[in-house]
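Re: the 208-residue chain
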Amino acid sequence: MSKSVVQVGHAIARPVAIRSVRTALAGAALLIAAVAFSSSVQAQSPKPAKSRAEETLDEWNDIGNRLVDMAKDFPEDKYDFRVQKDQRTFAQNLLHAAAVDYELIRSIAGTKMGPDFGKDVENPSRDVYKTKADVVKLIQQAVTDGADLIKKQGDAGLDKTVKLPWGNELAHVSYLWMIGAEHSGEHYGQLVVYYRANNMIPPASRPH
C-alpha cells in the first residue's frame, strides 16, 4: 500500500518539476534578452550637442523657411486676403516679418543691412513690393542674411551685447535671435489661419 502511494506521489511530482524548470528557463531567457537590449542601447551613444550658433541657426532657418515656403505657395490673387478688416493682409504679414528681421539684423551687425523701408520701418509698403515675386524675394533675403550673420559671428557673437532696436536697452545677441524666431513664429501661426480660411493646407502640414 505504501509503495502505491509513493508511486502516485512521484507521478504527481514529475509534471510539477517540469513546469518549474520551464518557468525558470523562460525567466532566464527574458533576463538575457533584457540585458542584451540594455547593452545595445548603451552602446549607441547620443550624438554630441551642436554648437550654440548651429542650434540658433537651425531655429532661425526652420521658422524662416516656413514663411518662405508659404510666400512661394500661396496664390498671388489671394495675397491681399485678410480674415478681419483690421488685420494685415497675407502679403503685409510677410513684409512685416521681413522688416522686423532686418531691424534685429542691423542691431546685431551694427551696420545698415537690407533695403530702406521708408518712414514705417516695420511695414514695407505694398506700393513698393507689388508682386508675389517681390514679397518672396524680400522674405527669402531676410532669412538668408540672418543665417549668414549667425554663421559669421559664431558662438562668440551670441554673447555680445547690443542695443535693442526698440527703447534704450542692451541685450545679448542670443536674445535678439530668440526675439526674431519667436516673432516670425507668431506670424506663421497667423498665416496658418489664412490658409485654413481659404480651405488650404499650409506646406508644412502636408503629408510628405
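The helical segments are 2-43, 52-73, 90-109, 132-158, 173-197.
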